[in-house]
Amino acid sequence: QVQLVESGGGLVQPGGSLRLSCAASENINNFYVMDWYRQAPGKDRLLVARINRGGGTNYADFVEGRFTISRDNFKDTVYLQMNSLRPEDTAVYYCNAAGTQYDPTFSSWGQGTQVTVSS
User: Fold this and answer.
1) What letter would DSSP give residue 6?
2) pLDDT of residue 35
3) Most CB atoms closer than 10 Å: which of 30, 69, 74, 101?
4) Are 99 and 105 in contact (CB under 8 A)?
5) Over the stretch 12-54, which tens digit does the pLDDT of each residue have?
6) Which H helix or E strand runs over 92?
7) Smallest Cα–Cα separation from 49: which of 75, 82, 1?
8) What separation in angstroms does the CA of 42 have from each of 65, 85, 87?
9) In 52-68, which positions are buried (b, 16+ CB within 10 angstroms) versus exposed (e)?
């Protein structure tokens, strides 16, 4: 089972930036996609951004143009650069590895990292 460790969360003022990292314990090319999700208190977990093995990306409408997902295949790490942060971006952010050639339904989560946007 792959281990995913998120880091980089913290407290930031509105308009500020943070970069989250998700370090995997194995080759991230083993997975069809690597995702970032977020969950605010009392709300559902939502997909924020996705990157596939070819580097293609998708974003939720609420972060389009502000967040950028990227990957470093040599470091087996996925990043989420978050700019122009808003109070409504406050949430726990989770990394997810999904789908393998042996199990398309595979899914593994990290423990999450807290992002708080507040003045």
Assistant:
1) E
2) 98
3) 69
4) yes
5) 999 999 999 999 999 999 999 999 999 999 999 999 999 999 9
6) strand 91-98
7) 82
8) 26, 20, 16
9) beeeeeebeeebeeebb
pLDDT of 1 strictly over 90: no
Joined together, the tokens standing for residue 9 give: 């969360």
Torsions phi, psi for 29 (to 5 deg) = -70, -5
Strand order in the sheet with 4-7: 4-7, 18-24, 77-82, 67-72
Cα separation of 114 and 73, whole Å? 25
Residue 6 reports pLDDT greater than 90: yes
Stretch 94-100: mean pLDDT, rounded? 96
In 3D, which of 24, 43, 9 has the Cα closest to residue 112?
Answer: 9
